[in-house]
Amino acid sequence: MKVSMAKSSKYTSKQPDENGVIAWSDEENKIWSELVARQLQCIEGKACDEYMDGLKKINLPHDRIPQLSELNEVLGQETGWQVAPVPALIDFDEFFRLLANKQFPVATFIRSREEFDYLQEPDVFHEIFGHCAMLTNPAFAEFTHKYGQLGYAAEKKDRGYLARLYWFTVEFGLMQTKDGLRIYGGGVLSSPGETQYVYSGTPEIQPLDVSDVLRTPYRIDIMQPIYYTINSINDLFDISQMDIMSLVAKAKELGLFEPKFPPKQKLAS
């Protein structure tokens, strides 16, 4: 999710020039190239067909970080979406505002080599490789748009519930298909560790019920103890047509489920 829980980031997004072009260094392009090569191998036979189809459409370069204008050309034609450059951290207001306007926020920095394997903040690799292919799919795109509209209009106390819906779909969503379990969530698709972990037999995997998802706590800094599955990408379109805010109201009444993870250790002061 674009909204980091961290108070600050050591990364700074790169600013596009007057033509919208971002000047990436040779080393940054090399990191991108290595990340793409590794993850393409990792998701083989695990990513859903809609993601693989979208990947062909956006035609990601493997040797360099794409310019946002290249992505916008394809996304605009397919679903009317665009990607928008944002700082390393943005707040909920801006996050929901962008989604409500069919703009997907992309933090324009790439992880350092020291954090090659794991990065808490979402970088340009996570945003583009993880999410942009799915945004070519009309059902996924409509779900994300409706989610942004709901979130932008929602009160602050309701946004935490909505965040869980995004987390267990757009970020960590799985799909049961005729060929078995497949991934559509960008948080899994952009992470080699999480991709393999999904198939390890360790996490709990349950059919997605919106009311359950709204009540399921999560942590951003661990492997997920539970994932939720849909049966078709069209299930997301069906969810987008529900009265989600009435489900949020019910979830607030019922309260959250017990977390399936230990509490975060507090650092000694």
TrEMBL record:
Its EC number is 1.14.16.1. Pfam families: Biopterin_H. Pathway: Amino-acid degradation; L-phenylalanine degradation; acetoacetate and fumarate from L-phenylalanine: step 1/6. The keyword Transmembrane helix does not apply. SUPFAM superfamilies: Aromatic aminoacid monoxygenases, catalytic and oligomerization domains. The keyword Iron applies. Residues 1-269 form the Biopterin-dependent aromatic amino acid hydroxylase family profile domain. Its cofactor is Fe(2+). Coiled coil: none annotated. Keywords: Iron, Metal-binding, Monooxygenase, Oxidoreductase, Phenylalanine catabolism. It catalyses: (6R)-L-erythro-5,6,7,8-tetrahydrobiopterin + L-phenylalanine + O2 = (4aS,6R)-4a-hydroxy-L-erythro-5,6,7,8-tetrahydrobiopterin + L-tyrosine. NCBIfam families: Phe4hydrox_mono, PRK11913.1-2. Belongs to the biopterin-dependent aromatic amino acid hydroxylase family. This is Phenylalanine-4-hydroxylase. The gene is phhA.
